[in-house]
């Protein structure tokens, strides 16, 4: 075996774990997963460990993964900070509990943005309906009520437009600890992906544009068009501040709003991200490979684009006519081996092009997945 | 699960099976292998089946793979034709026993080349020393004595330069059924990879140049430089004749000599081939993905190059300083998770470039693996 190869454990066995493993095997690494069941997307791609009773959050069999692994990473920012601290006593976990602590709670995340002078929406912590009324008085409407933890793909959010919606909003998010955020009037939604390894190397991918529907990412355009180089540099400075402050090792994603006044941070994820899936064929080194390189102590790879234009189209709910997509040149299909279900991410299609016209033409041919 | 997804069984679990599986998971397929032991390169990448007594050629546990699989393929042309015929009674095997029959025996292969008017070296079948003497009288010296079956990486071959070497040559190849081939005075060694699916689609990659040392492939240059388009077309015509004659489904590789008189066929392999590893990042669709597409009834993907120049450098015997390679942009490392051993293929490094100068510069930086 090569001297660079190691055993990597992943908490979670969904599509992110699946794509991390596929990016890591070519480096000679071996993979193990702790997932909910043997049906999960990553389950064929390494040693699969599950709770004794599948589909529960029991961690009694986690020891098997920990003893297998030289290093452990996780798929979700909702991973328990306490659990990661416990594992870290035995086996290194990257990103560390510190990154997880900040990234899994919107209140801590916003406080960190403020501390690092990264612009973000005004916000207030909300623990009950009285807090919410006070917060609305300070921040004004429209505003967005979000649970502090565990929201994703638009879940756990309510856009409050009128004062009489407060109770409805509070019920809607499950009467849980939340923050109220001022509504940001944005032109586009952007994101940036950065990577840091323990040797303090930093690399950054280009800002990309993300288009959502019903709170779910549908389309990423890479790079985002008409971005002033100064804006890219500013985004990279924000990322460097976050990476260094948290001592982050691995991929970090920051979602941003592009506004008249400049970039406004929305939220960060301490992991590979759907808006980075275009990098699989679109960049010299994918976000998945760079995450694996970072956590396994290897030099980071080039983030340069391989072609001038790329896009990522999510396959949501139903697979559709995959054979039609496979017939297109410059298109790469990535399926996650998941059963169809409304709103579920089943795969994605990467598109590469040498011109905007070529990109638009191919996206036109993929309209079935975008409409 | 998607309607295109299926279960694929692979006879063998080496690096070819490993890379086939990694190319097939993104299509939603699942993989199983029948290999010698749980230490093989593909063993982590699907259901692994082995003989009851590992590292034997016992096939008693093969039923498990056959019942798992919707379709079966193989890694090696040395797979038993009889075994493939038996399996085919239950589960389709692609390429079929017909392709295997021709490709695993140099005598049958040469006869097929002659039948299809594909130029190849003069040859004679040799079953004993008397045959060898007669063959040398007909064909002349120098000539190459090769076992009809199971030779690879230069094993089972002897170049006869002088008449007094006949006995030494016969002993050297193990006194087994062989052919004597006239020595071909070639300028370069080339190869071409083609793919056919059951819907009679054919696609072809560009001719590449292969540089060997001690009978082992060291370097592939893709595409081969200074190839007249008429030569590429001729190679494609030869491939189409072979694919159609054998009803081949999957990847077929043909090694060729470039001579003053044109292309001369050397040998074919009914499988993905080391000289096609550059396609992983170098082509729109890799040879591995196209093989999987072909055997699983999907449309074939574009074989166009993604950048004008590509190369593949084999990692032989020792891994060397992999971190140094990882630091180079435009370079992709693929390790097979194998222990170091003299002459063993441990991985390969793909190089991509936009100019000959850029390619040469990167190959210079990879000299440790080429010298």
Automatic annotation (TrEMBL), chains A, B:
Pathway(s) this gene product operates in, as recorded in its UniProt entry: Purine metabolism; IMP biosynthesis via de novo pathway; 5-amino-1-(5-phospho-D-ribosyl)imidazole-4-carboxylate from 5-amino-1-(5-phospho-D-ribosyl)imidazole (N5-CAIR route): step 1/2
Record has Phosphoprotein as a keyword: no
Keyword GTP-binding: no
Molecular function terms, GO-annotated: 5-(carboxyamino)imidazole ribonucleotide synthase activity; ATP binding; metal ion binding; phosphoribosylaminoimidazole carboxylase activity
Domain of life according to the entry: Bacteria
Class in the EC hierarchy, top level: ligase
GO cellular component: cytosol
Assembly and oligomerization: Homodimer.
Designated name of the protein: N5-carboxyaminoimidazole ribonucleotide synthase
Keywords on record: ATP-binding, Ligase, Lyase, Nucleotide-binding, Purine biosynthesis
PROSITE patterns given in the database record: ATP_GRASP
Catalytic activity from the UniProt record: 5-amino-1-(5-phospho-beta-D-ribosyl)imidazole + hydrogencarbonate + ATP = 5-carboxyamino-1-(5-phospho-D-ribosyl)imidazole + ADP + phosphate + 2 H(+)
Any single GO BP term: 'de novo' IMP biosynthetic process
Pfam family of the protein (one): RS_preATP-grasp-like
ATP-grasp domain segment(s): 110-296
Gene behind the chain: purK
NCBIfam families with a match to the protein in the record: PRK06019.1-2 (NF004676), PRK06019.1-5 (NF004679), purK (TIGR01161)
Function recorded in the entry: Catalyzes the ATP-dependent conversion of 5-aminoimidazole ribonucleotide (AIR) and HCO(3)(-) to N5-carboxyaminoimidazole ribonucleotide (N5-CAIR). Catalyzes the ATP-dependent conversion of 5-aminoimidazole ribonucleotide (AIR) and HCO(3)- to N5-carboxyaminoimidazole ribonucleotide (N5-CAIR).
UniProt-annotated binding residues for ATP: 106, 146, 151-157, 181-184, 189, 212, 266-267
């Amino acid at each position: 075996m090569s001297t660079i190869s190691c055993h990597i454990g992943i908490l979670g066995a969904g599509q992110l774990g699946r794509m991390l493993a596929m990016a890591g095997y070519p480096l000679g690494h071996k993979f193990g997963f702790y997932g909910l069941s043997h049906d999960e997307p990553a389950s064929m791609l390494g040693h699969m460990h599950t709770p004794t009773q599948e589909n529960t959050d029991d961690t009694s069999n986690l020891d098997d993964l920990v003893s297998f692994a030289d290093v452990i990473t996780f798929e979700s920012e909702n991973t328990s900070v306490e659990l990661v601290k416990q594992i870290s006593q035995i086996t290194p976990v990257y990103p560390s509990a510190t990154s997880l602590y900040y990234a899994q709670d919107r209140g801590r995340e916003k406080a960190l943005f403020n501390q690092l002078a990264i612009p973000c929406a005004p916000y207030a912590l909300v623990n009950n309906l009285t807090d919410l009324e006070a917060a609305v008085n300070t921040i004004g409407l429209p505003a967005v009520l979000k649970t502090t933890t565990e929201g994703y793909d638009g879940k756990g959010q309510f856009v409050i437009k009128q004062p009489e919606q407060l109770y409805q909003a509070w019920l809607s998010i499950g009467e849980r600890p939340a923050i109220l955020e001022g509504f940001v009037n944005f032109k586009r939604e952007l994101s940036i992906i950065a990577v840091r390894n323990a040797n303090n190397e930093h690399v950054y991918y280009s800002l990309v544009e993300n288009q959502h529907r019903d709170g779910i990412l549908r389309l990423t355009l890479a790079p985002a068009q008409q971005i002033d180089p100064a804006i890219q540099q500013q985004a990279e400075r924000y990322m460097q501040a976050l990476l260094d402050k948290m001592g982050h090792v691995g991929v970090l994603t920051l979602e941003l709003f592009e506004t008249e006044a400049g970039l406004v941070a929305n939220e960060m994820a301490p992991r590979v991200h759907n808006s980075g899936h275009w990098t699989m064929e679109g960049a010299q080194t994918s976000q998945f490979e760079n995450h694996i390189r970072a956590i396994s102590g290897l030099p980071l790879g080039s983030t340069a684009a391989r072609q001038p234009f790329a896009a990522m189209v999510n396959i949501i709910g139903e697979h559709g006519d995959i054979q039609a997509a496979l017939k297109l040149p410059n298109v790469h299909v990535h399926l996650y081996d998941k059963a169809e279900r409304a709103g579920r991410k089943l795969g994605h299609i990467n598109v590469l092009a040498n011109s905007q016209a070529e990109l638009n033409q191919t996206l036109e041919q993929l309209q079935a997945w975008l409409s």
